[in-house]
Amino acid sequence: MSAVTRCSRCVLSEQFPNIRYDGDGVCNYCHDWDRAWKDFDFERSERRLVRLFETAKAKKRRYDCLVGFSGGRDSTYVLYLCKVKYGLNPLAVTFNNGFLSEFAVENIMNSVRLLGVDHVMHTIDWSLLKRMYRTMMLRAGEFCSVCSAGIYLVRQHYRDLYNIPLIVNGASARVDEASPFEVNCTHPVYLRRVLRESFAPGEIDRLIVPREYDLGLWDLVKRRLLDRGHTAVNLPDQVPWHNQEILDTLMRELGWRTPDRTKEHVDCRYAALKYWFRNQQMPGFVFKQEKLSQLVRDGQMTRDAALADLEKAIAEDAEPPVLDAFLDQLDLARDDVADVAGRSHRDFVTKEDLVPRRPAALRAVLGAKRLAGRLLGR
Ligand SMILES: [Zn+2]
Asked: Among 64, 199, 276, 362, which lies 20 to 30 A Cα-Cα from 334?
């Protein structure tokens, strides 16, 4: 490990895409993080948040907010805060990705019962979902983008169904890994490109809801003009989010269970495979370094503790015991993943492909809408 150059503050290595170190050995990602979060005013941010919640409640809809609920630590805590601390009436929505761990299922059922919230488990025909996972694995060497699309799908679907004014997420730019394009991609443009050879458009649309870049100009304009003022907020970016304290609260208040306090994503049976495949595709990269670096920057972990964790991850980077179950569930053979190292999302999209187009006509409509809003005092 000593042979690898790492940032002197976080633990990002010299293999990290686009990394640069300053004279003190501090990386550009640490400086980016400081600019966004170092002087972040949490008290002010929470006051803003409370105003947003009061506005949502004042609409007196069936639900004040929607929480995408995986049964993992962060989304469970989001649901807990929404209901208990902020007094919102949330609808919890789970995308059944087919890989929910027994811990996730138990935590989901316990949490919604103890919190007294309405909950939906949304399941897509498994034969279709399985073909999608298989196709992504065989062509691009990953499967997480399918689940990401499903999570987005259920959020939009139930928001529209019940006209819910606010979506509250458990994702965070501050403490979650913030992978650059070179490392990770779950973008629907990429997903559609990989799937379109093997799936009819109608099938793809059952997983991937059309977003702005999929729409023609007229639909874009219509959507913007008829936008009913929905909004979304990432709660961990607005209030302090200390992983170990959150676990204590969930265990105490909701009987929450985890097989390992130090592990992320205990809600997915195959989370370990995500990292194992990725580490093969990017030799020497060690996927875990990103999350650890964020926790060091956020003061939740010392650099020494993160280095020790990383050392452990490198030493233990062997075939996860769940591989056979995963292959079995997707009707894949060991040979199908033997050369996973040679596959990547980058075979299908470039960074430039993902820059949203904003036609001049749309910009004009948005400008006019803003102006009208100002003139009407809204
Ligand atoms: Zn750094």
From this structure: 199
